[in-house]
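Thread title: Can someone regenerate the structure for this chain?

I was given the following input by a collaborator and told the matching structure tokens would be attached. They weren't. Posting the sequence so someone can regenerate them.
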Amino acid sequence: MTEKILILDFGSQYTQLIARAVREANVYCEIIPFHKQFSYEPGLKGIILSGSPFSVNEDGAPDVDIQSMIQNVPVLGVCYGAQLTAKRFGGLVAKSNKREYGRATLQRQLDDQLFTDVAPESQVWMSHSDSIKDLPEGFEILATTDSIPVAAFRKKKDDGQPLYGVQFHPEVYHSTEGKKIIKNFLVNTCGCSQDWTPAHFITDTVAALQKQIGDRKVIMALSGGVDSTVAATLIHKAIGDRLFGIFVDNGVLRKNEFESVLETYAKIGLNVKGIDAKTTFYRELAGKTDPEAKRKVIGKLFIDTFQEEAEKIQGIGLLGQGTIYPDVIESVSVHGPSVTIKSHHNVGGLPDTMHLELVEPLRYLFKDEVRKVGRELGIPSELIDRHPFPGPGLAIRILGEVTEEKVQLLQEADHIYTKALKDNNLYATVWQAGAILLPVKSVGVMGDERTYEYTVALRAVTSVDGMTADWAHLPYSFLAYLSNEIINNVRGINRVVYDISSKASGYDRVGITIPDIKIYRMKKKLAPFVDHVCYIPAGKRAG
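Best answer:
Regenerated them for you:
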């Protein structure tokens, strides 16, 4: 039986970081909206209450029955969760004299198993405008800071399970010993055995897949990416060649990707059929400039191609998908269904069209956990260590209309970029990298020749799990070398720029019209690598 910690989400921006800290302690956990019903199944070892942008004193503020929870399992309240705990049991929570945000020094007042191996004074991260002014009867202070009298507390041992609250965020990087505190809650308080490992996951998942699938057949769209490859390998391990993989060349893959990925799949032993559909995709993409329109064209054609191939296989009853936990988290909001994250998202889509039962072996894994499972399965590093690649491929890294000529330009530039990262031992230091072809041409002089060619923007970000990311600080000497390589070897590109904006979770489109040039700014809610701005000062001409 898998042990589990539940994290009740009140809408905090840090909820996923709590889950990351729990998983890093080799304990399985799930995030659910605070209002979702759950049962106290035997494997449930404890509950963590997240922070929230709300005040516990607001009308309609999120609320849960903590009293009934501690009759069953230990509970830890974080920030809002701590304040809700205090208020629920009769304490006083009120506005602070000033908003407490940033670093603070935690000063322990009592010894407790929650602070095993934690220094008497340690740095923590505050982010709240309310404070606990008075603890309820039957509670005691464990720690303070210079600005707040109740930074951590516990319910005295009388009846029920242990109950703790901390008014700081132990899950964030700036709480230097915060993960020790979370681990202490998991191990010392909840009694978790810390046995949730990649090998454990594989054994449990293969058994679960065999039970779910039985003697039926599974069809699955493969992309060559980490998620779909690991998911397919797990399903194949469970049912063998009753898994039928389809890999479609939509014309916007990376250079030589179609052939190389099929070759690797053959080495792994997966049953995969490659479909060359480039011509059809290019024809339907002609004239499309809006990024969402391009996504819809690619999505529809992919479904049509996939369905056509699926109909050739008799007895298909299930659809395999490489859905991972960030997909699930982003698709469920505390207050109901969230806005569209990505129109090419794994959550939804094909099942509604094909009426097939879903098989999602990676549904509760973060990206880095998927990689660990893949290594445990023996999947070659060229697939496991590949950077994430958007579903619509190079189509959303080409701003404006997609043509075969532009795809070839971008493929060449992207290939040079990727190869250079690998040759200079930088590829593994970067979470995701790619080239973006901007809809901007400028005049350049190369030797005695004047050129009027495209600009390519290079993008590289660092991250742990893809939930947040920052731009990678690649060496200037490397960028200079790379610029020369692209300009000298890709006819059609005469200018290279490097993007230093941080990665948002997705993007909106804003059109900025300059005479004869339309430049797109992509921000929030669509897909990676299109959050780029080309700025031309007033009165200046491009080129």
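Residues 335-349, 504-543 have pLDDT under 50 and may be disordered.
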